[in-house]
Design a protein that fits this description.
The chain is an alpha+beta fold and about 90 residues long. The chain has a single domain, classed as Arylsulfatase, C-terminal domain, CATH 3.30.1120. The protein contains one helix and six strands. The strands form two sheets. It has a four-stranded antiparallel sheet with strand order 1-2-3-4, covered by helices on one side. A two-stranded antiparallel ribbon has the order 5-6. It starts with a strand and ends with a helix.
């Protein structure tokens, strides 16, 4: 399964959430609402989730292993940098 499109909607520079992303796979399947968040150790992605119970969240869709997460994160951060550099 290949990433065929990444769309980044940059959010204001204030706050920890930097962007909302949609990723298309094989021009056939899309995952919306992936968030780019600024953490203590730099940027990371948070997969779409829903609230269950009091303050707990559960991912709706997520990579099965760290290799796939790293590949997905690489595609997302590459597009995020392009959008960020365009604005500067």
């Amino acid at each position: 399964m290949e990433v065929t499109d990444v769309r980044v909607r940059k959010i204001s520079d204030e706050g920890k959430m930097k962007a909302i992303v949609s990723v298309t796979f094989d021009n056939e399947f899309v995952v919306h609402d992936i968030k780019i968040i600024e953490g203590q150790n730099g940027l990371f992605i948070a997969m779409p989730s829903r609230k269950i119970g009091e303050g707990d969240f559960r991912d709706i869709a997520h990579p099965i292993n760290s290799e796939t997460r790293a590949k997905l994160q690489g595609h997302i951060f590459t597009e995020y940098e392009k959008v960020k550099n365009k604005e500067e």
